[in-house]
Amino acid sequence: MCETNKNVLERIQLKGLKYALNLAQTTNSEKVYKEAKIDKIVDRSKTLTKKYLNKAMITNSLIQNFVEDYNNHEELDEGALCKKPPRKTILSVLKSDEATV
Hints:
The chain has 5 helices and no strands. The protein is mainly α. Helix 3 (41-59) packs across helix 4 (61-72). It is elongated and about 50 Å long.
């Protein structure tokens, strides 16, 4: 997801939370998330994707093979065959998150 889309979703979520929690529109976003006890949209989407892939790998052999092939073949890495800068797939985002954790 591009930065612009992330920012738009983030703004929509913050406005909705401020309205639902009856907070002033000038309230700091960190305070809003803390009071609502939820994660930012990007963090939540990554968490849900990881949970889905873990569950799907157990129950679906097609997804299991897909993820294993992605992890085992470096030549399939993003941009190996691209002329332009590649867009990251969700698997590479999750893989890079695991490397930093």
